[in-house]
């Protein structure tokens, strides 16, 4: 009984620390999108936006939208080049380097932006349910997936469980299940790349629990609880929704249909803002911008942008630079282009040195210095092999 009550008591105490400081005024971009919509940053000022069955690039400086892959009119599970690839129902996207990882309802797809190719990484597209507690090359998910990514792995939020997916092989391991994740609707996941901690938003009609999960052990703790700025069953809000993201400096941003919350990771203090209108769904954060999505009409979405003060737009932040470096070192291309040629070069050097040593050794052994058959050291052989007495001996 104590174990069940204590987390909720702690959560109630955390609510007292929440500070509501007014409104945030975002700039609405002109383009509209058909939902559901997911968003993630490619650079500090460019985002990838999904529209149900397609992906687009959006420049936040001017709002320009460029089609990337997929089709708004034709769906399906089709891998291949960008012109032929199709998606069924994109629910989330996350970007690592030149790869976009896509939660396409019940499977994980990957788009290589350099090769312009789509492939299926994990799950069986079009097939749901199935729980695998051990590593499996053919896992199944229950759908409506949310993603987070490290340099090596993907983390998949699938209702009340989190799985870890190897980005190279697609193998899946169960990382964490139930506990705090089952105390509401687990609707979003993000990774703090410095602390290797996963944060999950678990929403109810009145509060949002932020659950911290160790990315290695899967251990869950109740990190913070925030009070919603409006009830989840408010008119016009059709679902309990909460989205979160972690910025490069370690602050956690939580978006709900009528408000925005900022959590200082060091102190867990919460600052909250109310937002104009309602229907907000997704949030993405870079060092320069906050981007949120709003369902302003049934299945019609738009992006709203807030430029962060004192932010450097075009310089890579330490977290991004470190992550990019780790991703480069762990990529197949790095091994093919750098590691393997270096090893081959070292092997060639070793072979050349060994062959040279053997040649020199054989030449040395082929030359035999003439020796005297007389035991006294005062006698030597001249070049003709005749013995003579050394003048140095007296």
How many strands in all? 28
What's the CATH architecture of the largest domain?
6 Propeller
Spatial strand order of the main sheet? 1-23-22-21-20
Number of domains: 2
- Strand residue content: 35-45%
Q: What class, by secondary structure content?
A: alpha+beta
Main sheet? 5 strands, mixed
What's the level 1 CATH class of the largest domain? Mainly Beta
Q: Tell me, rounded to a whole number, the average pLDDT.
A: 80
Radius of gyration: 32 Å
Name the CATH superfamily assignment of the largest domain.
TolB, C-terminal domain
Span between N and C termini?
109 Å
Q: If helices are DSSP runs of H or I spanning 4 or more residues, what is the number of helices?
A: 3
Q: In percent, how helical is the residue content?
A: 10-25%
CATH topological fold name of the largest domain:
Neuraminidase
What's the structural blueprint in terms of helices and strands?
Layout: H1 2-16, E1 18-23, E2 27-34, E3 37-43, E4 46-51, E5 54-59, E6 65-70, E7 80-81, E8 90-96, E9 99-104, E10 107-112, E11 117-123, E12 146-149, E13 153-158, E14 161-166, E15 172-177, E16 185-192, E17 197-203, E18 207-214, E19 220-227, E20 243-246, E21 252-256, E22 259-263, E23 270-274, E24 280-285, E25 289-297, E26 300-307, H2 318-329, H3 332-366, E27 379-381, E28 387-389
Parallel strand pairs: 1-23
Antiparallel strand pairs: 2-26, 3-4, 4-5, 5-6, 7-11, 8-9, 9-10, 10-11, 12-13, 13-14, 14-15, 16-17, 17-18, 18-19, 20-21, 21-22, 22-23, 24-25, 25-26, 27-28
